[in-house]
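Dig into what follows:

_____
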Amino acid sequence: MVFPYTSPMHNSSQNAAIHPQKSRAASREDAGREPVIAVESLAKEYRVYDKPEGLLASISGLFQRKSRIVHALRGVNLSVGRGEFVALLGPNGAGKTTFLKLLSGIITPTRGTAQVLGHVPWERADDFRRRFALVMGQRNQLWWDLPAAESFRLHKEIYRIDTARFERTRDELVDMLDVRKILLQPVRELSLGERMKLELVAALLHEPQVLFLDEPTIGLDVVAQHTLHRFLTHVQAQRQMTVVLTTHYMKDVAALCERVVVITHGDILYDGSLDEIVDRFTTHKIVTLDLDDTPSLERMERFGFPCEIRGPQVILRIDRPRIAEVLPEILRSERVRDISVEDVPLEEIVAALFRSEAAQPPTTHQEARA
């Protein structure tokens, strides 16, 4: 079965917000419709114990231990509507996976409220658990020593899926990902890309309304990533699923998501569309020139913008408002064979966001003796 590739449409008319505590909660809800995911002031704190080095310190620690409170999430507010594909971005330790675990009911919050499909996740109601799925790129839900086909049948019994519906859904998903030939092979013998495809099939067998994906493309090669992008785009559009994705790969975001939520230090730093994040956080465009010769640095610096020279190729970072003014001047004064004008890469924008937030560390962790 061949499935079409449909690129997500980026809506640049929606308003973005930047604030650690305030998200654009209802900006994408359909009129008169309750959000599928509604989170208010959700916080999660952990108490961790520090163990000093050395035998003496270990003995002392038996009687008195030094602990501190780690704030994984700090009062997050978020609302996600039906059919949205949302990316959660953030550096390691920002709180992304903790957020997904809270929304899927694996852990309970320190304070705050959340509803997913009208249920409080950590109450773990049977109706709720039948209507969502969680796929973690570094965790397996398939039985390691059994073929995936056996895990699929176990999945059918757990979710009480009707036989005809199970077979129809399984065959459709298996054919989309072209994995029929490996269904009877033990999971431990499969490559990482093959396992991830089968993990997605297992997660979608009961046709969930909400899908949580935690770094699903981690460690995959370019071909496997592209296949999963096409598959997820098609299935999400076909079923109108709400999907929340965490990833460190900006290609995942560009290929799949209309909306980006940036989390740092447990706070929401940005909530908006892909187009808006480029417009809001960049002041320039990247102009690449292919010249007939290798210019000197002085020759290119006369245009008044930072430049990088790589032989006959010159890369300029020109202020957005001055593009129309500067380009004709360059074309008049230089022998240009080719020229391209591009936005700053998403990876660079997000990395700059992380760095700027890292320069402003959160409130010092509370310390205590236990």
About this structure: Confidence is low (pLDDT under 50) at residues 1-32, 363-370.
